Amino acid sequence: MCGITGYTGINQAGPILLEGLRRLEYRGYDSAGIAIQSEKSAETENGSAPASSIKMLKATGKVSHLVEKFEAEPDFKGVCGIGHTRWATHGIPSDTNAHPHLSADGKFAVVHNGIIENFAEIRAELQKYGIEFKSETDTEVIVQLLAYNYKGNFKKALMKTIARLTGSYAIGVISDEYPGTIFAAKQASPLIIGVGIGENYFASDITALVSNTKNVIDLDDGEVAEITPDEVKVFDHTGKEIDKEIRHINWDIASAEKSGYEHFMMKEIMEQPQALKATIEPRIKCETLNCGDTDLSIVFDEIKGLDMKKFNRVHITACGSAYHAGCVGRSIIESLCKIQVEAEVASELRYRDPVMDDKTLVIVISQSGETADTIAAMKECKYKGATVLAIVNVVGSSIAKLADHCIYTWAGPEIAVATTKGYTTQVAVLAMFAVWAAGELKTISHGAYTSLILDIMHLPERAQRALDLNTKVKKMADKYYDNQSLFFIGRNMDYAVALEGSLKLKEISYLHSEAYAAGELKHGTIALIEPGRLVVALCCYEKLFEKTVSNIQQVKARGAEVLAVAHEGNRSIFQEADDVLLVPQTDALLVPVIEIIPLQLFAYYVAKKNGCDIDKPKNLAKSVTVE
Ligand code: F6R
After folding, report:
1. What are the structural domains of the chain?
2. For ligand 1, is residue 322 a contact (CB within 6 Å)?
3. Residues 283-303: tens digit of each pLDDT
4. Ligand 1 contact, 377 CB (< 6 A)
5. Helix, strand or coil for residue 386?
């Protein structure tokens, strides 16, 4: 939510900042702006020094609008600057509310991602001193307070300022009095520093930097960085300089590019077999026994110290699609480990005073590792004594660091706002975790253990075969794209997939769509079924296939059209549904990884046919770092 970036070096900062913002745009796209310490030549027309050497450019809407403005300003030059792409929280998307924000004296400019909770109080206080505010944002208090606190020492003023802030922030600040220097600070919002040669950077995440450097420093909460072209110094909250490790990122630039695809979402859908392989393979151990047989096992080096016997219940928490993955995880873990498992959205759990103690294992799931509600929920659970295991994609993210144990999904960078490979790799990790835990708890037979591992190993290839449905799904989307209201139904695992399929469709196509447990429809919602309504019926969970067929018949009797997803080999579904998509067979517990793929493609093509901006759906942002 909001992307920030900064550059200081020998090259022109403008194009570098704009390129960084373009890559960060998935975090917010209401407006964008850059501020640059202008070069000496940028003095006023009569030759006197300008009131401020900080120049700003802002544009409402996408980064491309800002690029147009920049291209029309050949004098917008400088080698040190900061940039921001916004997802509005305080104040409408407008040029005035767009970042960077400038102090009243014009000496400081700031970009900010996060929310300053005590901004109203600080603002009122500064207004009493006669300081005038230009925007409606919470961010502006940071820069006005900084200018107010400044008595000749930039770092000191910044430390005093951030000590006053409550809430979350990742900020980058420049001052006209410190050419070539950027200060950055963070609390509960992501910020990394990119280390180059003779030039350094900062950004909300690596996607903005990967084309320039793969060496990064993770700034931790409460730390402040002083970034100059030749040096990065990091200070703790007391102002003491500390040593920080440089981490080498192994993402290549192609990970942050569309590589010939029209949208990141399609690229990421297509990357799923590879992402699943990268997530699964390193955790499967295959040993040849003396008798010549092979013995398969799941090995999680990262959770060696986790003793499953200690827990009498598991609580899964997450948001959005990650929560849907959690719903799948609940069924798999409960079924294999014979332990009570609950799944709950983090925004509810955090305020519910849940009953848990040191015998509770909490599993938090997050692609970004930065989701504010998930972080708050996990803190609450830790406070109650639970052990927290995180399943996270972004290495070094807040959730990964805060958790007691962390398993990474190796999906690679996910740029499209709608998650696809993030979700399927989460489900794959949950399945592997459940099998591993069942092995530890001895609640699974050796045969079932081995057979499930084999099925898990086949997931990448089965996902690839599900992707072969691409052309057929596109035809379905062409047929049904103008349905204004859709229902997704299913039972058990199929219901969990219905939740995710429905979310995928609504978030990128803006069509009204609801997911229902198939048996629940008749308790009220069936009133909405009328001739021509599309019902997507998920029928891969074969144990309950006949039951779902009854529900299909109920909606068909009321005129609905039914698009069914079932396993290859299921012939009877053709008698029940108007259209059928057949996906490769897999173990019942692993169905969601495969079954979601045609639904992702369906959402994509429906949104495309409706002319929607697939990678940047309206009102959304990728990393939800606000409550
Ligand atoms: C939907 C989607 C969101 C995220 C949710 C949690 O396609 O991407 O619902 O799943 O915002 O995000 P993470 O996984 O980053 O915590």
Report:
1. 3-256 (3.60.20.10), 268-457 (3.40.50.10490), 468-609 (3.40.50.10490)
2. yes
3. 999 988 777 778 899 999 999
4. no
5. coil
